[in-house]
Amino acid sequence: MLTVLSFLVAIAILIAVHEWGHYRMAVACGVPVLRFSIGFGRPLLRWRNRAGTEFVIAALPLGGYVRMLDGREGPVEPERRHLAFDVQPLRKRAAIVAAGPAANLLLAVLLYTLVAWWGVAQPLPILGEPVAGSLAQQAGLRAGDRVAAVQAADDAEAEPVRSFDELRWKLTQAALQRRDLTLWLGAPDDPAPRRVTLPLAALQARDVDAALLERIGLVVPWSAPVIGEVRPDGAAAAAGLRTGDHVRAVDGRPVEDAAQLRAWIRAAADADGRVRTQRWVVERGGSLVELEVTPRAERHGDGWVGRVGAMIGGAPAMAVVQADLPQALAHGVRRTWEVATLSLQMLARMLVGEASLRNLSGPLTIADYAGKSAALGWIAFVSFLALVSVSLGVLNLLPLPVLDGGHLMYYLWEAVVGRPPSEVWMERLQRAGLGVLAALMSLAIVNDLIRLFG
Length: 454
Fold this sequence. Notes:
Elements: H1 2-28, E1 33-48, E2 54-68, H2 90-118, E3 120-123, H3 135-138, E4 147-152, E5 159-160, H4 164-176, E6 181-185, E7 194-198, H5 210-216, E8 227-230, H6 235-239, E9 246-250, E10 253-254, H7 258-266, E11 278-284, E12 287-293, E13 296-300, E14 303-307, E15 310-312, E16 318-321, H8 325-352, H9 363-376, H10 378-396, H11 404-417, H12 423-453
Antiparallel strand pairs: 1-2, 3-16, 4-5, 4-6, 6-7, 8-15, 9-10, 9-11, 11-12, 13-14
Helix pairs in contact: 1-2, 1-9, 2-8, 2-10, 2-11, 8-10, 9-10
């Protein structure tokens, strides 16, 4: 229920803002707006303002529209003909069409600004144990390393990193842009930080998924290797482990952090599902205790992994990441630009086959993330709204005839040749655009189904 409600609220907000952009620009350009509708189908609520615009909330909230006075859509009184949309100068028509995507991008700026100004508790950029065989491990990164700043190849200067979430975004961005990333390690005020360069360009990243961070090797922040809740029927309870035990060593090897301990537990099961007993040394009440722990094998994909039936790892070190209003606004503009350009780059790469079409997401994935973000609180939901608002703005600027970007393409043609495209070509382009959009939506829904049920 939360997923459905969150999805409907998100879609209603984003559509309302998009159509509000068209509406406000039309009013500013002197074009009468006949109807402002959120949703399609049977009206649930309707009212009129003093200018005569009818506002409607309809039964199917998966879209919206602004209907303006337009001679192409019906008869217009001679005394109002000069106000109709289709007789306006090119600059006004283009401004009205572009205002919808612009409103979505502006909303994203404001939402990202709000989150940065309000502040949110995030894990510090202290690294957990890198994944075995990953780029991070090969580069010499270790559990407990703290990242103070990062610098992508060709950038003039390093950018400070205040949280692990920010580090993960920088890693993903650099990998998809196929740029190496230098990490400056040490405390923020360290006069001689250690530098490590990750050759992310060599990954030739095609997909934005968990596997990408696995290949980079930096998946989770550092957390202490302590035992959390112990299931009474699990291997941990059978071995005598207790909540609060701090694991110091496994089979004579010192344990650096929880990620390393989890990896060793998983590796206790071989390809045939057999497990080996491990010798653990734990600190309990100031004393060291030796225990024999035999993980239990569980199916995981096509193989087997070891499990002990206990929560592994304490809470990571946290800090409230907050900015004053000018800094927050700068962050909002920068993050909106980064997400928009990265989205366009991924779309371009999908067109030429350099990125997987699996990166396309549809309404089911959006609904799933809407519910998950809402469950985490309003900050997470606002951040989700900002991300989808950027995506909606970028999508509508694509030069497909049925989208706002397609209309802007027509106006560009008109500006260059001095006349609009012919009715025949307009009809052909509209049909082609609908076909492309339907194909993209079908592919996105298939990807959604694979993600959710595959």
